[in-house]
Specification:
The chain is mostly helical. It is built from 6 helices and no strands.
Length: 165
């Protein structure tokens, strides 16, 4: 092959590489900007979550110290009303925002703090219902109904609504 053809062939290949690169540049830039945009969105969401948690911390500090520690069991036969109240409030906030799994955990803590408390049983039952766990909801409603405490009528009504004696 004559050297002129080799040089010309090399020139054509170089031009092809440049044209291909230029054609792909917007596509590559789009991927990079889409990735960058997604990362910026994630950073913004994380920042908002951090700010919300900081506000919650400040609100808790303003309300004074709390003895609430998730999962801590009260003395045998006792009821730690302060812990139950805090756990119930937090569970209610989570339930209202549609975060039923976290609401369930807080309501379980409230029941642990005050075993046999009809209100805690009803909150658990409502949360199980929201999660689609009918059997667990019925068990909690039955426990609340048999407690005879405040809310036992509500529990009996829920049992009737769900078609259970």
């Amino acid at each position: 092959m004559p050297p002129e053809l080799s040089v010309m062939r090399l020139s054509v290949l170089s031009n092809l590489v440049v044209i291909t690169s230029v054609a792909l540049l917007p596509l590559l830039a789009g991927c990079d900007s889409a990735t960058l945009k997604a990362q910026q969105q994630q950073v913004q969401e994380n920042q908002q979550q951090i700010e919300q948690q900081q506000q919650e911390i400040e609100a808790l500090k303003a309300n004074g110290p709390s003895s609430y520690t998730p999962g801590v069991v009260p003395p045998a036969g006792g009821c730690d009303r302060a812990t139950a109240d805090v756990a119930t409030k937090r569970g209610g906030d989570k339930f209202a925002s549609g975060d039923y799994q976290h609401a369930l955990a807080y309501y379980k803590d409230a029941l642990t703090a005050c075993p046999g408390d009809a209100r805690a049983e009803i909150n658990l039952a409502r949360t199980y219902e929201a999660l689609g766990d009918r059997q667990s909801a019925l068990e909690q409603y039955r426990a609340a109904a048999s407690s005879g405490g405040a809310g036992s009528d509500e529990a009996r009504n829920a049992l009737t609504r769900l078609g259970s004696p």
